[in-house]
Design goal:
Structural class: alpha/beta
Helix content: 25-40%
CATH topology of the largest domain: Rossmann fold
Largest sheet: 7 strands, mixed
Number of strands: 31
Strand order of the largest sheet: 5-4-17-16-18-19-20
CATH architecture of the largest domain: 3-Layer(aba) Sandwich
Bound molecules: 5'-O-[(S)-ethoxy(hydroxy)phosphoryl]adenosine
CATH superfamily of the largest domain: ANL, N-terminal domain
Strand content: 15-25%
Number of domains: 2
CATH class of the largest domain: Alpha Beta
Distance between the termini: 34 Å
Shape: globular
Number of helices: 21
Amino acid sequence: MHDTCKTEAAVPVNPAFKEQANIQHEHLYTLAAHDPQAYWNLQAQKLSWFTPYHAVMDGTFAHARWFAGGTLNLAYNCLDRHMPYAADRIALYCADELGGMRTVTYSQLLEEVQKLANGLKSLGVSKGDRVAIYMPMISEAVVAMLACARIGAIHTVVFAGFSAQALADRIQDASCSVVITADGSLRKGKMLAIKNTVDCALERCPEVKHTVVVQHSSLACSMDLERDIWYHDLLADVDAVCAPEPMQSEDAAFILYTSGTTGKPKGIIHAVGGYAVGAASSMELVFDVKADDIYWCTADVGWITGHTYVVYGPLLLGMSQLIYEGALSHPHQAITWQLIDQYKVSILYTAPTAVRMFSQWGDALPHNYDLSSLRLLGSVGEPLNPQAWHWYYKHIGRERCPIVDTWWQTETGSIMISSLPSIHAMKPGCVGKPLPGITVELVDDLRMSVQQGTGYLTITTPWPSMMRGIWADEARFRATYFPNDRYDRYVSGDAAHVDETHDIMIVGRVDDVLNVSGHRIGTAEVESAIVEYIAVAEAAVVGKPDAIKGQALVAFVLLKDGYAATEELAVGIKQQVVASIGALARPDEIIFCADLPKTRSGKIMRRLLKDIVQGNTLSDVTTLANQDALALVAQQWQHAQQELR
Ligand code: WTA
């Protein structure tokens, strides 16, 4: 694999942080290396099990079973078990763009979760049923997930920025019988009528028998008397006690859809026991959690980061955290710093795209606020480039707070690679080393191990929070993640670089998955949305480097005969993508072309389009069938760039 990577010099961690770190991790690495099962047993013992497991791990790598025979409940572990000592501790500080703020204690959360759990039961939901959640970042979203967990229903949270069509696709794939939503969601100063989106989606989903609607705005909201019920009405009439369902460790906890190389998004399945162990142990290790921490992870619950490091991880540890409904740019550009100052946030976990956005707004803004409560900074979702790293370190962490750059995926369930500041120095741009119990290896095209240099990032031994499959698609699961004949390793889809001190730098995806503002978007999904547009014959989507978003989408579009390339058409195509997937997948540029570069067998050569938009010299063109098309596309691209300037 082509190797142009070079890692930066290490930055030592502030000695005061190390001295105060409450976990000395070295022995965990030693234990995990010598006896992984003993290590995971140690981590699992920190949870409450109703019945003990009889084995830590058994089965094959692709179908490993963790803590088999054990029963537990995620909601019980997040709430009930903290009651004796933390009933009045604030679980959630809920803030929003309008300046609203509410607090929810652990006992209040437990009460509401039990009521909603009983409410769901009264609607006919039982263990194993699927419930879709389409919600803003409000406490009820957390309640909804935990209420499902309490009764053993499998939640599938869909980010509320996804379109009606994308929501319907997920509801249908998972055969959800109930949807939990709200009448509105606040975003960039606007209250979006998301219940309308749900209504629109449900026109295609007759299997949905009920929707539960949180009244969150003053928007008019049409309610179908047979199907829809207000959240507050549902909770008014139910018993306040709901015993937690004892779940088998290997029972499914949730499904979360994510983009892949081909076809529709994949429903990634996670299992109760292993997921809980991965979430709790990684949370504790990476964030060096202390009893008085106020934690803020800026992810939405619609993504895996919101699942593991907003809902389950922090609550499993009984932490206090801030959640924010809205965009980090609203109501003003300093809102992030204002909230950290106001709530005395000690751990901030955010995405590189946000860091780059903050840095573009200038160095002065964060210095107008008291950020002395911060003690640790985190990053996730895409490479935190050295420039952004240094800005985050200097202007937010004030060269006092270490940064943990954490690599993981929807599929891995919890953080796999991150430096641990109490023992490692940090390298800007690097994610560091695998956590205890996680073994990774880079391999080249011939599957040979790469000890130093660049290769495909693979994981070589099972871990508890690994995905248990793709919903209703075993063949795709095997082919995507365990493609080797011997199924001996998990293939992540990322390329990475490892240096002389074994620090890992993530290079990026090696497949056709793009990363726009930390969101995974499959080129195939966007392309199929574009070709739904009446005028379009063919489309190819590639990523171009973007200073803030990391990558931006560029769509090369071939029109059907009789259609002319106009600005209106470009707008129409973009709207089509927003309608099919959501605004997060809207292409930045539409380049109309007379033909697309193809192989002799007719496959579009995206690799060459990528070279063009990234300004690289063209890679191998021996299989290209239509040289002229490539030259024309390159011209069109140049022309479009000149117009943009
Ligand atoms: C990318 C998000 C660089 C990577 C938790 C991975 C990262 C994909 C990092 C998973 C990081 C995640 N540095 N790249 N620290 N963390 N990625 O499923 O390409 O939304 O495969 O999970 O994001 O995205 P997903």
